[in-house]
Amino acid sequence: MVRSSYWLGSALVVLGIISIAAVAFGVVESQHNEQLENQAAATRTISLEQARWDAQKVDQEALETEILRRNEDLQARFDKLTTTATALEETASYLPRTNDVLQKNLNILSQIPEKINQWKASSNVTEKERLSTLQAWQGSSTIVQEQLAKLTHSPDDNGTDLSATIHNFHRKVKQWMGGVKSSAPMGPKLPASGTDEVMTHSHMSKSTLNTLEKFTFPMTMTEVQSVGQVPGTSDLHSYEAKLHGTAAWFQVSERNHQVVAYEEQSSSQGPARYDVEEARTAAKTWLNRRGFSSLVWTNTSRIGNVCYITFVAKQGNRMVDKKSVVVKVNLVNNQVVGMNAISWFNHHVSPASTAQTVMSSNQFSGLFSSSFHPKVYRPAWYAAADGAYIPATSILGTEHGHTFDVVVSDKSKAILDIRYLD
Potential cystine with 313: which of 153, 199, 320, 371 (Cβ 3.0-4.6 Å)? Predict the structure, then answer.
């Protein structure tokens, strides 16, 4: 009985221990599971935060990329706007000049049909008059096209469209020239070409008149008069004329039929609407149309609204300084109003074989005595105070062992300047 109680008690003790151990294990396991769950929850939280951060990072990078793209797009648009603004400013600068060119020349269009009808109805109009007028019209259209081309910078500019009317006018003039020459009543015949018949222009040879007309084309030249031979030269003669009603002066080489100097009265009042670079381009174009080739620009001098632009001849790779031409350009309208190419045609020095009288003795009175001996006569231009150049003759001479350069006006024979040389 006692032994049975012992084993029963022992069994109960063992069961109690097992129960306690089971409870303890359960508590530990529960704590472990709770810890694992907490770790898992923490891991999930970290993962979610990382995912959220990664998502934000992706969004930020995408946003930065988009911002950069938009910035580049805006920059490109800004650059385009800047270019457009610059183009508009340039357009605004040349449109007034373009309008001036058109306003001054489009009135020719209204004159042509009426003039053509007059010619067809009259038998008293000479062929020379018809052709000179038509050539003047044609030349005017060419000048307008050139002026418009200078005002625009590329064929795509809006200003080029403005020349369409002038281009059509040019084409019509060519058509009318052909029609009038073949169908209009014929006037008096002109002298045969190549003859030296005296014309009505102040006893001027036809060859000289042709030289002047060729040089001044497409301007209308009238009232041509001979001033006389340039002192100290064998073949240079001075002439006066009107170009579109404006007084002009010329020196012509009768030997090679070339205009070697030219000056036109031109008002330089008002603002200069062109710069020296535009003037240089105008001068080069003007010279090219008159047969001057292989030119090299060397110098530009500006006096007020007038530019004097110097070119020299080029032979191979070297410049020929003794062969030069000076072109005078009015910056108000960018028109060539003068030229001196005397040295170009080797007329820069001409020894005086005899003591030629280029002025009356009373003009020398008080300045030089009869002991003044002219040695060299040279065609020259005298720069007046107002910037204009006056056609003149430079007389190098000696008096009592001293050398003087006397500058005398070709027209008035007045002494313009006296320079003591040595």
Answer: 320
Which residue is associated with the tokens 């910035």?
Answer: 71
Q: Beta-carbon neighbour count of residue 70 at 10 Å? A: 10
**What are the tens digits of pLDDT across the range 355-412?**
344 444 444 444 455 667 776 666 676 666 555 567 777 777 777 677 777 777 777 7
Token readout for 393 is 């003759």
Q: H-helix or E-strand containing 242?
A: strand 236-243
* Selection from 329, 347, 346 nearest residue 338 by Cα: 329
Alpha-carbon gap, residue 377 to 383, rounded angstroms: 18
Q: Tens digit of pLDDT for each residue in 248-287? A: 888 888 877 888 888 887 776 778 888 889 999 999 988 8
Amino acid occupying residue 137: W
Which DSSP letter does residue 185 get? P
Give the angle subtended at the CA of 135 by the CAs of 151 and 308, to the nearest 5°. Answer: 45
* Tokens 């810890």, residue located: 35
Strand 335-340 and strand 221-229: the pairing is: unpaired
C-alpha–C-alpha distance, residues 416 and 380, integer Å: 11
- Rounded Cα distance between 422 and 419, Å, is 9
CB of 105 closer than 8 Å to CB of 166 = yes
Pure H helices in 106-126: 107-121
